[in-house]
Design goal:
296 residues; mainly alpha; 2 strands; 77% helix
């Protein structure tokens, strides 16, 4: 009887907690806030797609703006955006991943490591306009690269390094220490252990950080306006374009708005939203896929 009474009392206390007014109120507030966030996202995207999709055509996507030919297109800006993404990642990814490997696997915990981590966190909080000002003065004027895609890529490298470094470092921390001890215990060198065990195990987090960095590159405008310029011509030489001025999609969006060409601006906005959504979906897919393989 005592046990039955205790069980009934326990069920009663559980049910009592489930119907408390404060719990219902807080749950309602949480759902309300989540609903507001979803409505804001749907509202912004819906309005941009409503205004922009009618202005997107094959000519708009496959030609460059030309007064002589009477065309308005963003092909040059799309190519410039791809140049910026590729150059920036080629520079930032090895440095960011290498820095994270050093901090997590080689450096001894202490003041130096804390100083480096504090520096990377501070860099991630600096406004992009300041990066643009520094890039224009240092890379553009001091080094002599002037307004060019390379100047913009070097500036963006400074901006996304903290993101790649911190993301990779957190991914490396998720690898169990037993992997390290087991590899070293059978006679593997530390670099061999890192290259064949640690990095592959942390690859989902590393890839996610890189893809999120691509998203920031695609959406950046202030820093590139000071460093890469606003040219929209199609490249005549593959490697020569790196040293020429070139405006990305975000820069062209700004220019369209400045000239009161709102229809074209909304068309560019739709392209940017599709790219950002594609990047986020790719990040989620790759992260899930690698995690499934790791668990298997």
């Amino acid at each position: 009887m005592t046990n039955n009474t205790a069980a009934v009392s326990l069920r009663g206390s559980i049910y009592g907690k489930q119907v408390r007014v404060s719990d219902l109120l807080l749950t309602g507030i949480i759902y309300f806030c989540a609903g507001i966030s979803i409505l804001i996202l749907v509202g912004i995207m819906g309005y941009v797609f409503y205004r922009g999709i009618p202005n997107i055509s094959w000519e708009f996507l496959s030609t460059a703006t030309s007064t002589l030919k009477g065309t308005v297109g963003i092909l040059g800006n799309i190519i410039n955006t791809l140049y910026i993404i590729v150059i920036t990642l080629l520079i930032a990814t090895p440095i960011g991943v290498g820095s994270a490997v050093y901090l997590n696997e080689y450096a001894k915990p202490g003041k130096v490591v804390r100083a480096i981590e504090f520096t990377t966190e501070t860099l991630s909080g600096i406004p992009s306009i300041i990066f643009g000002l520094f890039g224009m003065v240092f890379f553009g004027n001091t080094i002599g690269l002037k307004y060019s895609l390379l100047t913009g890529a070097l500036t963006l490298t400074l901006m996304i390094l903290p993101l790649i470094t911190r993301t990779t470092q957190e991914a490396l921390k998720t690898v169990p220490d037993s992997y390290r001890h087991g590899a070293l215990g059978i006679g593997a060198t530390k670099w061999y252990m890192i290259r064949t065990i640690i990095l592959p195990s942390a690859m989902p987090g590393i890839i996610t950080g890189i893809i999120l960095a691509i998203g920031r590159i695609v959406g950046e405008s202030a820093a590139l306006l000071f460093t890469a310029g606003s040219g929209y011509d199609l490249p005549r030489k593959i490697f020569g374009k790196v040293f020429e001025s070139g405006g990305t999609l975000t820069i062209q969006l700004y220019l369209f708005m400045q000239k009161a060409q709102y229809d074209e601006a909304f068309g560019v906005a739709v392209v940017l939203l599709i790219i950002v959504l594609g990047i986020n979906c790719l990040a989620k897919y790759l992260s899930h896929r690698f995690n499934v393989e790791t668990r298997a």
